């Protein structure tokens, strides 16, 4: 493998395992770069960082892959999670299992995901999520 292939593999592992936040800002920037995302500043009323994904303003905690689950045996109580899907430009559902490596891109509801990732008001997030709560 050449250097670029090794670099892509290592970054994929870092992002996929949810280590981007623990490794600091550099790893998150590399992760965003791998997903073709550019960073922009938020309005002054908040200090969170957002990025542009296909023209949408997206909170950078949502720019990492969803949880990777090695077991499909459902968790007790809650069997689905939500993540921001940069390809769909919306929050999507995934099945939680006992052995999931959760990332910052994990939410308990569609509304929570839309509010956090896109900065939508609760009413607009509920409208986009429909009957999914």
TrEMBL record:
Keyword Ligase belongs to the record: no
Example GO molecular function: serine-type endopeptidase inhibitor activity
Signal sequence annotation: 1-20
Domain of life assignment: Eukaryota
Alphabetized InterPro entries for the sequence: Kunitz_BPTI_sf
Keywords on record: Signal
SUPFAM superfamilies recorded: BPTI-like
Protein name: Putative secreted protein
Organism from which the protein derives: Amblyomma americanum (Lone star tick)
